[in-house]
Amino acid sequence: MRIVVIGSVAAGTSVAAKARRNTEDAEIAVYDQDKDISYSVCGIPYFVGDEVESIDKLTPRNAAWFKKRYNVDIFTEHRVTHVDKVRKELQITNLRTGEAKVDSYDTLVLATGASPTTPEVFAGLTWDNVFQVRNIQNAESIREFVETRQPKKAAIIGAGFIGLEMTEQLSKAGIEVTLIQRSNQVMKHMDPDMAFRVEKKLREKGIRVLLKTTVIEVVGEQSVTAVKTNENELLDTDMVILATGVRPNTRLAKEIGITLGKTRAIQVNKKMQTNVADVYAVGDVAESFSLITGKPIYRPLGSTANKMGRIAGDAMTGGSLEHRGILGTGIVRVFDMAVAQTGLTEREAREEGYDIAILYNIKPDKADYLGGIELTIKAIADKATGRVLGAQITGINGVDKRIDVIATAITFNAKAEDLFHLDLAYAPPFATTKDPVLYTGMALDNALKRNPLITPEDLLKKQKAHEPLQIIDARSQKQYAVSSVRDAINIPLADLREKAKALDPSMTTVTYCNKGVTGNAAQNILLNLGFDEVYNLSGGNKNYQLYVQMKE
């Protein structure tokens, strides 16, 4: 049996390693047109910013190491130019020498990855100060440019993971960064109200953020000196980073009739097999599927690529591993803020037809008396079943462990009430007695049963439609005087039982406090007093004011 893998980053090398672990009988060869193998694409921004001192840290293994460890032949700087699926042959060009050769396979794996997309205005042209962030050569070129040319200004096009990471790193290096994003928010995979928190952090750090903006003209011949936007603004710049996403490298797949999925990546089954016999696809060239909806999803991440590679290597050598789908879990650091997401967003859940409960939970990551810092969890659950569908979190500390706990819970079909019953580790330096995850489960479960929540968005819609509402601010008079919800009346919680007599129990009522806890207590009082319909404003006045700021 001869296994040939095309591509040698995360997925391709995982295929080879797992196949060899399962059998010593197979011949295994890997071809890659790049110079490096098994490198960390995700670490490139941190090398550019000097957090990673040596490029060797991103390329810990080479072809010789793989040969010695796994008896796998890896051929770098070799491009597979054609696949003959009938003869099971490959045409290959040695990029160093120009020599052509033919190789054969019994099992073929496409791990051809993805390539950066290039905005039309930059396509087909080259400048010495325009960079993409995809491989080790890119990393070395950008860092060398920063060190030798010492740019003062940078334009970064694209506000996804790579764009935000490069923004952080270049800004820390003292470069004035302008972040240009085509859509009306940064981080398009998040809901706008959570993405706004990221935008706010960027602006606080001195980043100029241009939304709903595209580059329509590039000024400069050898080097770009300025870019012109669709707002007719000319932005001077010393360098440009293109971080506008990636597209799967499907040329070879299309040539041999492999079916592409709805995401335009290669369609595979749970064993990573394509529709062509003895051909597998893994990593950024292949689509996955949602654990929640079962529908195709494309999230090109190294973690998923490694998993796919292991599954394919196992399947082709008689193993039983199958791909179980993904939640699209991701996390990024934006200066001192961590931003994470898993499962469905509010928008995605509604598009899938779910009737959802939405919770904004603002809680410290650990005990206040040990320096706890607020994090915000936006969680959604299906009203019909109680199942948790997704979460988004922003904060300084503890974001990573909370998103991982929730992702694990969603994977095993947890309901909101199940989150509350998790036995999580507690000590004051690490968590609060009622961890933010536990509180998320408790409050979501309450919202599904007796204590409905209302989001700032829905409250503003009701106000705009002039629906009859009585809005109760349950905070102190001092807090109310500083900032409040429009049309709210101030009845501190301690006075509510007595003053409730002057309220109309048949009118739709909204209670709120600063973040949600006291508002919930006020909601309970009014419900116990027989009020018909009482909502607690999710995330309280703090969340409401942030939403209003976003809409301004």
How would you describe this structure to a colleague?
There is one protein chain. The chain is an alpha/beta fold and 552 residues long. It folds into four domains: 2-39 and 60-113 and 247-315, FAD/NAD(P)-binding domain (3-Layer(bba) Sandwich); 120-244, FAD/NAD(P)-binding domain (3-Layer(bba) Sandwich), CATH 3.50.50.60; 336-449, 3-Layer(bba) Sandwich (FAD/NAD(P)-binding domain); 453-551, Rhodanese-like domain (Oxidized Rhodanese, domain 1, 3-Layer(aba) Sandwich). Helix content is 30%, strand content 25%. The chain contains 17 helices and 30 strands. The strands form eight sheets. It has a five-stranded parallel β-sheet with strand order 3-2-1-7-18. Strand 19 and strand 20 (296-297) form a beta hairpin. The relative contact order is 0.09.
Topology (elements, then pairings):
Elements: E1 2-6, H1 10-22, E2 27-32, H2 44-48, H3 63-70, E3 73-76, E4 78-84, E5 89-94, E6 100-104, E7 107-110, E8 114-116, E9 130-132, H4 136-149, E10 153-157, H5 161-172, E11 176-180, H6 192-204, E12 208-210, E13 215-219, E14 226-229, E15 234-236, E16 239-242, E17 246-248, H7 251-255, E18 279-281, E19 288-289, E20 296-297, H8 302-315, E21 330-334, E22 337-343, H9 346-351, E23 356-364, E24 374-382, E25 388-395, H10 399-411, H11 416-420, H12 436-449, E26 453-454, H13 456-464, E27 470-473, H14 477-482, E28 488-490, H15 493-499, E29 509-512, H16 517-528, E30 534-537, H17 540-551
Parallel strand pairs: 1-2, 1-7, 2-3, 7-18, 9-16, 10-11, 10-16, 11-12, 26-30, 27-28, 27-29, 29-30
Antiparallel strand pairs: 4-5, 5-6, 8-17, 13-14, 14-15, 19-20, 21-22, 22-25, 23-24, 24-25
Helix pairs in contact: 1-8
